[in-house]
Specification:
The mean pLDDT is 91. Strand 12 and strand 13 form a beta hairpin. The chain is an alpha/beta fold. It contains 4 helices and 13 strands. It has a single domain, classed as Leucine-rich repeat, LRR (right-handed beta-alpha superhelix). Helices cover 19% and strands 19% of the residues. It binds zinc ion. The site of zinc ion has 8 residues, from loops.
Length: 245
């Protein structure tokens, strides 16, 4: 259910001390005043970052389409406040970084980040509990976040044309040197945020894909052991499913 409002965008902008000055802000104003559940910014070649004025739509948007903005380089943390978002399409941009706060989008069902310059999805993927479809094809990713393995509803994963690690290629190389360097993580087991973390990479099946590399960040040796146990159970369940097919 969306949060009811009593103020128009003009009243909101006045409170915030901002004025409507460009076409995107004008579109935001229209979307806000009409309580639109969808919003599109497309083919805006001068757009380097998402304008903060979009924040006013955080309690109403279920669909945000920002594809084909060829100079857009990041998905900002404030998108993590769009708690009703079900569809986010930021494909065909130049995105290198995704803010960890995107992990807060618990209603997100469809995330399309295809055709960008992503090296890693730096949010705790296990928190995207509603995710059904993820498209990250044509990026620069070598590993995937391990939390993806624990999403019950994920059924469609598109990831062609990424330079993913091959198990033979990385044999003997310490996992820590192969993992993305993050200043802090959220433990995939207990969800505690920490800067002092353990890392390991392991290969698993997911959706129609075989032997994909996943990286796991945990806060302690105990959590790491519990994740490894959980992965053993995951592999056993996958094997059982194949045997019954
Ligand atoms: Zn932990």
């Amino acid at each position: 259910m969306l949060v009811p409002r009593t103020h128009s965008y003009q009243a909101y902008a006045k409170v915030k001390g901002t004025a409507v000055i460009n076409p995107i802000e004008e579109k935001v104003r229209c979307a806000y005043d009409s309580e639109a559940s969808g919003f599109i910014i497309r083919h805006e070649h001068s757009l380097h970052e998402l304008p903060p004025c979009i924040k006013v739509l955080r309690s109403q948007l279920e669909l945000l389409i920002i594809d084909n903005n060829y100079n857009l380089r990041a998905l900002p943390g404030f998108l993590g406040d769009f708690l009703f978002l079900r569809v986010l399409d930021a494909s065909y941009c130049r995105i290198k970084n995704v803010d960890p706060r995107l992990g807060c989008l618990r209603r997100l069902e469809h995330l399309n980040l295809a055709n960008n310059q992503l090296e890693y999805l730096s949010f705790e993927a296990s928190r995207l509990k509603s995710l059904k479809k993820l498209n990250v094809e044509n990026n620069n990713m070598k590993v995937l976040p391990g939390g993806l393995l624990f999403l019950q509803h994920l059924k469609e994963l598109t990831l062609e044309n990424n330079p993913f690690y091959d198990p033979v290629e990385i044999e003997g190389t310490p996992d820590v040197t192969l993992s993305p360097c993050l200043s802090s993580i959220e433990c995939v087991n207990c969800c505690i945020p920490t800067q002092n973390y353990r890392t390991f990479i392991s290969f698993h099946r997911l959706c129609q894909h075989v032997e994909l590399p996943f990286v796991f960040h945990t806060c302690s040796d105990t959590c790491q052991a519990q994740v490894r146990d959980r992965l053993d159970r995951y592999n056993a369940a996958q094997r059982e499913r194949r045997e019954h097919q």
